[in-house]
Amino acid sequence: AKAVQRARRLIYLEDQYLWSADVAKLFADALAANPGLQLVVIVPRVPDQEGAVAQGPQYIGRWQAIQACERAGRGRVHVYDLENTVGTPVYVHSKVCVVDDAWVSGGSDNFNRRSWSHDSELSSAGL
């Protein structure tokens, strides 16, 4: 949270799930406080859990998180997915965050409360 709050130029995030309201608020607050800040997010095009019960909420949560960031940082939020040379979506499973080329985190934890509090995850961060 401290690194994101101190961001001035760029937050780069690769995450399997971008649906946490708490994380979206953290990014949105940073975007609102810093008019020069850009947010670049790489997510999978299609969630990993199929079916109406799981897939729908994943899309809704992601949409709500992205909308919160876009409202705070109009024109400064860039969300992408990946595909191979024949157009097949590539599933983004990485969990990386880089802030202003000054702080980095990587590991197995997604940017959400569940990964940080309930799952067996490991991450490393540094300046």
SSE blueprint:
Layout: H1 2-5, E1 10-14, H2 21-33, E2 38-42, H3 52-72, E3 77-80, E4 82-83, E5 89-90, E6 96-99, E7 103-107, H4 113-117, E8 123-126
Helix pairs in contact: 2-3
Give structural notes:
- By secondary structure, the protein is an alpha/beta fold.
- Helices cover 34% and strands 24% of the residues.
- The strands form two sheets. It has a six-stranded mixed β-sheet with strand order 3-2-1-6-7-8, with helices on one face. A two-stranded antiparallel ribbon has the order 4-5.
- It starts with a helix and ends with a strand.
**Helix and strand element order:** HEHEHEEEEEHE
Largest sheet: 6 strands, mixed
Helix amount, in percent? 25-40%
Provide the structure class: alpha/beta
Radius of gyration: 14 Å
Q: What would you call the shape?
A: globular
**Content of β-strand:** 15-25%
Number of helices: 4
Provide key terms for this protein.
127 residues; alpha/beta; six-stranded mixed beta sheet; two-stranded antiparallel sheet; 4 helices
Short note summarizing the structure:
This protein is an alpha/beta fold.
